[in-house]
Write a structure and sequence with these properties.
By secondary structure, this protein is mainly alpha-helical. Helices cover 75% and strands 0% of the residues. The protein contains four helices and no strands.
């Protein structure tokens, strides 16, 4: 899936969203639930507007890989997440 927005637009969206989240936090609102809802919405948008499932998953995995490579995500956490998924789904090797 190709990125259709320029860096300036993406930076502005992130800035605006961060301002909203900070405002919600200052009002003692449940920001964690809100962020999860935004994530679910974003995932739905990715799948709805991707040309196919492979493109959608490629976009999502590409973002995760960039975060892993930049050190923003702890690789051990990702590994534990997949281990947890396998245990929950009965597919332990």
């Amino acid at each position: 899936m190709e990125n259709q927005f320029d860096k300036q637009t993406l930076d502005q969206v992130m800035l605006d969203l961060n301002k909203c989240i900070e405002k919600w936090e200052s009002l003692n609102l449940d920001t964690q639930t809100t962020i999860v809802a935004l994530l679910e919405f974003s995932m739905e948008v990715v799948f709805k507007h991707a040309q196919n499932t492979e493109d959608a998953l490629g976009a999502i995995s590409g973002m995760l890989l960039n975060k892993l490579e930049s050190g923003e995500i702890d690789p051990d956490v990702v590994e534990r997440m997949f281990d947890f998924y396998e245990v929950q789904n009965g597919s332990i090797h």
